[in-house]
């Protein structure tokens, strides 16, 4: 089984890479590619997938907290 990677892109989507099954709230399976992006901003016309609508309208740069 391949390792799944989820990258939180600055001011953008969640980029998913690897062998993953994406389900809706009722358990129905979305057709995906080996790498795809999920909307984080709520502006996409193709939810749950990102369509780039966030560009210039969404500000989020999440970072891992560094422990002392």
TrEMBL record:
Domain Iron-binding zinc finger CDGSH type: 15-60
Pfam family, one: zf-CDGSH
InterPro entries assigned: FeS-contain_CDGSH-typ (IPR018967), MitoNEET_CISD (IPR042216)
Top-rank taxon: Bacteria
Example of a GO MF term: 2 iron, 2 sulfur cluster binding
Key words, A-Z: 2Fe-2S, Iron, Iron-sulfur, Metal-binding
Cellular-component GO terms for this entry: cytoplasm
Gene3D superfamilies membership: CDGSH iron-sulfur domain, mitoNEET-type
Name of the protein this chain belongs to: Iron-binding zinc finger CDGSH type domain-containing protein
């Amino acid at each position: 089984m391949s390792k799944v990677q989820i990258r939180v892109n600055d001011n953008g989507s969640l980029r998913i890479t690897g062998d993953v099954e994406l389900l809706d709230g009722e358990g129905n399976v979305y057709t995906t590619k080996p790498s795809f992006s999920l909307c984080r901003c709520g502006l996409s016309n193709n939810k749950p997938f990102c369509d780039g609508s966030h560009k210039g309208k969404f500000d989020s740069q999440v970072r891992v907290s560094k422990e002392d």
